[in-house]
Design brief:
This protein is about 50% helix and about 15% strand. It has 2 domains: about 120 residues, Response regulator (Rossmann fold, 3-Layer(aba) Sandwich), CATH 3.40.50.2300; about 70 residues, Winged helix-like DNA-binding domain superfamily/Winged helix DNA-binding domain (Arc Repressor Mutant, subunit A, Orthogonal Bundle), CATH 1.10.10.10. The chain is globular, with a radius of gyration of 18 Å. It is built from 11 helices and 6 strands. It is α/β, with parallel strands linked by helices and about 220 residues long.
């Protein structure tokens, strides 16, 4: 898998730092850079990247607005929003704009590379740091209606107890390997449970499963 990336970041040192992360990942290539929203929109049309790493805080317009305009013209491009802090408004606006991921900049290198690959394959991803924020703030991503645990089980009675345990860990942002360690099971088994949960909740990926669990009051 070869993934072409457009990096949008106005700070030169930050661009240099991010580019240096890709040296050990030949399958991921930064094919262009932009320092503001207008340039990002123009370069997205010109070079047609697979993924855009988009800083939210750009000088001429927000990365969110730039993402919205880019995706209106080409919905085959996937946008990963990068931010240095958690903001209720930025989170909801990012998801509304059509962005596929919302990432805090202190993410580990390996995790960022995994997110890029997941997004390229069609998944959505929200930084695990944001999950408690969504739950506590109910910031508009999750509707305010809550169901009791018994009501959730009534709606999803085919979810096993083990799958329920795995789902709680998915909501907490754990990867398959982390779930395996937490529950003392193999990573293959953890992956199988996650796949079953996604199918049973009728969602497309683990992020949507976590959002649905939050929405329906399971966690």
């Amino acid at each position: 898998m070869h993934i072409k990336i457009l990096l949008v970041e106005d700070q030169k040192l930050m661009r240099i730092g991010i580019k240096s992360l890709f040296c050990d990942y030949p399958e991921l290539e930064i094919i262009g850079e932009a320092v503001n929203g207008k340039e990002a929109i123009e370069k997205a049309k010109l070079i047609k990247p697979d993924i855009i790493l988009m800083d939210i805080g750009l000088p001429d317009m927000s990365g969110i607005e730039a993402a919205k305009q880019i995706l209106e013209n080409n919905n085959n491009i996937k946008v990963i929003m990068l931010t240095s802090h958690i903001s209720e408004e930025e989170l909801t606006s990012s998801l509304t704009s059509g962005a596929s991921a919302y990432v805090i900049k202190d993410i580990s290198t390996d995790f960022l590379m995994s997110v890029i690959k997941m997004v390229k394959e069609g998944a959505m991803w929200i930084d695990p740091h944001v999950v408690p924020f969504i739950r506590d703030k109910n910031c508009g991503v999750i509707p305010s209606r809550q169901l009791s645990r018994s009501a959730f089980k009534e709606h999803h009675s085919n979810l096993t107890q083990r799958e329920y345990e795995v789902l709680k860990l998915v909501v907490d942002g754990q990867s398959n390997s982390q779930i395996a360690k937490t529950l003392t099971i193999s990573e293959h088994t953890a992956k199988a449970h996650v796949c079953n949960i996604i199918q049973k909740l009728v969602v497309d990926d683990r992020t949507q499963a976590a959002v649905k669990a939050l929405k329906e009051g399971l966690v």
